[in-house]
Write a structure and sequence with these properties.
CATH topology of the largest domain: Nucleotidyltransferase, domain 5
Number of strands: 10
CATH superfamily of the largest domain: ATPase, nucleotide binding domain
CATH architecture of the largest domain: 2-Layer Sandwich
Structural class: alpha/beta
Shape: globular
Number of domains: 2
CATH class of the largest domain: Alpha Beta
Strand content: 15-25%
Number of helices: 11
Radius of gyration: 20 Å
Length: 343
């Protein structure tokens, strides 16, 4: 395990992988001094989802502002920074390039070391900021708009992916189902909100099992089942209970996540379990996983919702452990849209 340094290592972190332009100052990987997020949700809601070209243009407008604000909030300057951490993948290529170009420019101009960070590693590392006692090894379920991964965190920067989605990510399914039942974008928060008014046992939606990948996920069939149910109701002239559909769909997703997570805890004999990613801010999913962990006597860790959705604080936490492990990126660092964890 990496021994943490006694010196204060200050990292300016930048995140621009999708539709949030974010910057943060993190000290020693766990001490958050500032966390600035400029969200584009209102803009993309007009189009029912993220438009990559618009996201990239907005990042260009906002990137300098969020960095200046993050430094100001932390009462520091670029001269105080020991390293620059930046997300270089996975994500939307145009959006990633804005953050990477900015980080490289600062690294070159100020002669500050550059650290490229994997977006999913950032999500996992968000847990270190609020849970000062959390250290590897532990299991982590990363559930977001673009990813659903069950990961064994063997050590800082060392990951074993036990399972991943074969098709739609959980967050993607939430967005598509929300659109289908008339809730709009973003789907996750809207489905959760309306689900509290519905009966989660009203409709028996499927829970996918994958024979050759016990920890892999599949949400495409569930999404299709919801669409088929809606079409069936419309053809028969039956009323659609929006809240019941939302609650039943959400329960199906939650059951699969909990089942996979608990199976892995048993098989790998883990006593620590964490969640991460935008969908991990869903209160129903958080509560179900926490209760399941409690029954097994497993310590449960979760970041605050603001650290679940895309942010730069998590990138700063991940960058710190990469930095003290001696990892550096050159000025040839490039954005990689489909970057795999561990590459």
């Amino acid at each position: 395990m990496i021994k943490e340094t006694e010196k204060e290592i200050k990292i300016l972190a930048i995140e621009s992988s999708c539709d949030e332009t974010a910057a943060a100052v993190v000290v020693n990987g766990r001490d958050l001094r500032s966390n600035v997020i400029s969200s584009q949700i209102d803009l993309h809601t007009l189009y029912g989802g993220v438009v990559p070209e618009i996201a990239s243009r907005k990042h260009i407008e906002k990137i300098n502002q969020v960095i200046e604000q993050a430094l100001s909030d932390a009462d520091m300057t670029l001269d105080d920074m020991d390293a620059i951490g930046v997300t270089y993948g996975p994500g939307l290529i145009g959006a990633l390039l804005v953050g990477v170009a900015e980080a490289k420019a600062i690294s070159y101009a100020k002669d500050i070391p550059l650290v490229g960070v994997h977006h999913i590693e950032g999500h996992i590392s968000a847990n270190y900021i609020e849970n000062k006692d959390l250290e590897p090894p532990f299991l982590c379920l990363v559930v977001s708009g673009g990813h659903t991964h069950l990961v064994k965190v063997a050590d800082y920067g060392k990951y074993e992916i036990l399972g991943r989605t074969r098709d739609d990510a959980a967050g993607e399914a939430f967005d598509k189902v929300a659109r289908a039942i008339g809730l709009g974008y973003p789907g996750g928060p809207k489905i959760e909100k309306v689900s509290y008014e519905g009966n989660s046992d009203a409709i028996a939606f499927p829970r996918a099992k994958i024979a050759d990948g016990v920890y892999d996920f599949s949400f495409s069939g569930l999404k299709s089942a919801v669409l088929n149910y809606l079409n069936g109701c419309r053809m028969k002239g039956e009323e659609i209970n929006q809240a019941d559909v939302a609650a039943s769909f959400q329960k199906s997703v939650t059951d699969v996540l909990v089942e996979h997570a608990m199976h892995a805890i048993d098989e790998y004999k883990m006593d620590k379990f964490a969640i991460a990613g935008g969908v991990a801010s869903n209160g129903v999913i958080r509560q179900a996983l926490e209760e399941a962990c409690k029954k097994k006597g497993v310590a449960f860790y979760r970041p605050s919702p603001i650290l679940c959705t895309d942010n730069a604080a998590m990138i700063g936490a991940a960058a710190y452990y990469d930095f003290i492990a001696g990892k550096r990126a050159g000025l040839d660092l490039n954005a990689v849209a489909n970057l795999k964890l561990g590459e």
